[in-house]
Design brief:
2 domains; about 80% helix
Length: about 425
């Protein structure tokens, strides 16, 4: 019954009522905005905004050529320009109110042309611009100019460079495409950028455990190096806290790998889901066990500066490593088969495993998925052994001992699982 009643209402009436209602709501918020900020001089009121919305709707509906609507927009813009010029000559006056009136004029055409969800989204954005002025000012004050440059870099490598690259093989010896190489760069850079933003704006003064969590999202090896150095400088910190932070960095490595692999090959990711989740849950349980033991050592807060992750040179190095590992994988699999790839995976674990794993997933190598799964597990496992060595060498005290033992344990079970899984 309700649907039949609604379908019987003329669409023109629905669009008109919607235009009036939304113009009225925005006008109320506009009035509250000026009273809250003690603006005595401003353009229009709630009724003025409703009239502007009605004017835009009628002029748009009357003339199919839209000439009347365009003429009304020009006339309204001219009147607003005169209003702004007169007031700005007397005192400092913002252009915000006059531009806002022009947006109200567009509500009628938007209600007629666009789906209802877009109209609602448009109105919500207008209300947020009015109601969240303090928040917008805080964000603009805290956002440094270099952050805009960093965002521009990410938009360039993802929105400009990627569409220009062909989806064809780099060469007969490299079974990966230009597009897939750069897509891997963007995905890894995106995770790094997310970690950087969290470090910079939400956890400026953070505990060592948060450092492991966010640092592991960027690079678990780099996070291990940072935590190991900090543990050496401050020997009074509890070894359980340091070890928990190191284990947390490794947990985030597995989380990051799962997310990235799902984007490239969900079938391989599903096969990795069980062993990775087991490792993650066991590691979390270990951290809980370490932190529930009472200790009286002071909590360490890391205040080290976080560098921008979106340097062009870093992206180029990652792309070159991606191509290098693709070449090595192609050569090894062609000459030594699955056993050679597993040996390569163990060796690669002592370097940067991201470009190796992504090249393995992006290329068309003559190996079954089970071998790829084993190679990923072996590479991540040997990378844990590398991090254990880094932690012990950099800390040079007993604070990292528990984490080093756990990382070695993960290396051993990764080796056993990978070779058992292959059979």
């Amino acid at each position: 019954m309700i649907m039949e009643f609604y379908s019987g209402i003329p669409p023109l009436l629905v669009q008109f009522v919607t235009t009036v209602a939304f113009s009225f709501v925005v006008g109320l918020e506009f009035r509250s905005y000026h009273y809250a900020n003690d603006y005595k001089l401003h353009f229009g009121s709630t009724r003025t905004f409703v009239l502007i919305g009605i004017l835009g709707f009628i002029l748009y509906t009357l003339d199919a050529s839209r000439l009347l609507f365009a003429a009304g927009l020009l006339l309204l813009g001219a009147l607003l320009l005169v209003f702004y010029w007169r007031l700005s000559a007397e005192r400092s006056f913002s252009l915000f109110s006059t531009l806002f009136a022009l947006l109200i004029y567009l509500i009628g055409p938007i209600a007629s042309l666009f789906p209802s969800w877009f109209l609602v989204l448009f109105i919500v954005v207008l209300i947020l611009l009015l109601g969240e002025k303090p928040l917008i000012h805080r964000i603009s004050d805290q956002l440094a100019n270099e952050e805009i440059v960093t965002l521009a870099k990410f938009l360039i490598i993802s929105g400009v460079i990627l569409p220009l690259l062909p989806d064809q093989a780099v060469s007969p010896m490299l079974p990966v495409t230009y597009y897939r190489v750069w897509l891997a760069v963007i995905i890894v850079s995106g995770f790094s950028y997310l970690s950087y933003l969290a470090n910079s704006y939400f956890f400026k003064s953070r505990s060592l455990l948060i450092t492991g969590l966010l640092g592991g999202l960027y690079s678990s090896t780099a996070a291990t190096v940072v935590i190991g150095r900090r543990a050496h400088d401050l020997t009074s910190v509890s070894g359980r806290t340091v070890s928990s932070a190191l284990i947390m960095a490794t947990i985030m490595m597995y989380v990051r790998l799962l997310a990235i692999i799902f984007m490239f090959d969900w079938k391989v990711a599903l096969q990795l889901l069980t062993p990775f989740i087991i490792i993650i849950l066991l590691s979390i349980a270990t951290i809980i066990g370490l932190l529930t033991i009472k200790n009286h050592a002071p909590e360490l807060h890391d205040v080290s500066e976080v560098k921008h992750p979106l340097e062009l040179s870093t992206a180029i190095i990652f792309a070159l490593l991606f191509i290098l590992f693709a070449f090595l994988t192609q050569y090894i699999t062609s000459n030594y088969g699955s056993h050679g790839l597993k040996s390569l995976a163990v060796i690669v674990g002592f370097t940067d495993i991201d470009p190796f794993i992504l090249s393995l997933l992006s290329g068309k190598f003559i190996v079954p998925d089970t071998t790829i799964v084993s190679a990923v597990i072996l590479a991540s496992g040997s990378n844990n052994l590398l991090k254990a060595a880094y932690a012990v060498a950099l800390a040079r005290n007993r604070s990292v001992l528990l984490a080093a033992v756990w990382l070695i344990f993960l290396f051993v079970i990764s080796i056993l699982y990978a070779y058992k899984y292959a059979w």
